[in-house]
Amino acid sequence: MTADDARPEDRRPKRFPPPQFPMRRPARFAKTPPAIFPAILGLMGLALAVRAGLSGLALPLSAADLLAGLAVAVWGFAVFAYLAKLIRRPGVVLEDLRVLPGRSGLAAMTMGAMAVASLLLPFSPAAAQVLVLAGLAGHSVLAVILIGLLRMGQLPLPVNPSLHLSFVGFIVAAPPAIGLGWLGLATALFWVSLLVALMIWALSAAQAFRALPPPPLRPMLASHLAPAALLAIVAGLLGMDGVASVLLAAGAVYSVVLILVGRWICVAGVTPFWGAFTFPLAAFATAMLGAGGVWFAPGVGVAAVALAVNPAILWWILKRWPGGKLAAVTNVAEA
């Protein structure tokens, strides 16, 4: 039968339901984007860097405490918003993990609990204990789910820098663990995280020779700096000064490379992936300030840059959250 032989009703265009007026609005917090969390984690890292800088200069810590309080409040509200979405439909976490902004954002959310533990440790060791354990538990659950999705072939296999957040992010719990006297836990986290970071660095370097990341994903390359900085911090706290120096030197070399190719990295313009700049920058500043000596002055300089960059990127991202623009560009699942 030809198209001319078809019945007239078969040739009619399909009928679609009329548009709704007013347009349907998603439930409150139903489209909370995980992409808010990397930049919020960067704000918490900035508070830790400011605390380290003021301590090294023997200045009052009131400014650092104020910034820490602001960072904890922003993180707490963001976690509340995402938990409201998760309670509405628990399976939404699997859908968010299937996209890169969701994977990196959820990892940053649980890393945030560990960072908050560091911020609250001087004021409430009991709260820090709860947050360390909760952060490690949540991060472990996300890592297990992610491994399951990878084994089932539901995620792309190429290595990307966001794997540091998912599988090396446990190291953020080591500094507060040391402060709480949990040296065994901190030591285990250091060596396991170092091994995983070395594997990801090696695989990423091998992949870079085969294919470079597309312009929108290039800011994620800054994530490679965070493990070096965090591992250097923990090595210094554990008394492994030689290891800390090697990691700091490696981080310094990589940061110079990032600066030299900065225009190439940022060629796509400002995107939500710019949140990947914030935490590595603050962590590297904290590592240098904590090491002291010849590292202190450069650390002050990096902390000053982070003071300008991190809040600006966070504001750019957060102001796109309420209207749903951030959810749309990051492929957020709706609960």
Structure description:
The chain has helices spanning 8-11, 37-56, 62-88, 92-97, 100-120, 125-151, 162-167, 174-179, 183-210, 225-237, 241-260, 262-265, 278-291, 296-318, 325-329. The chain is mainly alpha-helical. Helix 2 packs antiparallel against helix 3 and helix 5 packs antiparallel against helix 6. The chain contains 15 helices and no strands. It has a single domain (32-320), classed as Glycosyltransferase.
Compact summary:
The protein is mainly α and 335 residues long.
Largest sheet: none
Radius of gyration: 22 Å
According to CATH, what is the class?
A: Mainly Alpha
Quickly count the helices. Answer: 15
Count of distinct strands: 0
Approximately what portion of the residues adopt beta-strand conformation? under 5%
Average pLDDT confidence is 92
Q: What series of H and E elements makes up the topology?
A: HHHHHHHHHHHHHHH
Fraction of residues in helices? 55-70%
* Regions with little confidence, pLDDT below 50 for 5+ residues: none
Give the overall shape, derived from the CA principal axes: globular
> Going by CATH, what is the homologous superfamily?
Voltage-dependent anion channel
- CATH fold category name: Glycosyltransferase
| Domain module tally | 1
Report the span from N to C terminus.
45 Å
CATH architecture: Alpha/alpha barrel
Structural class call reads: mainly alpha
List keywords for this structure.
67% helix; Glycosyltransferase; 335 residues; 15 helices; globular; mainly alpha
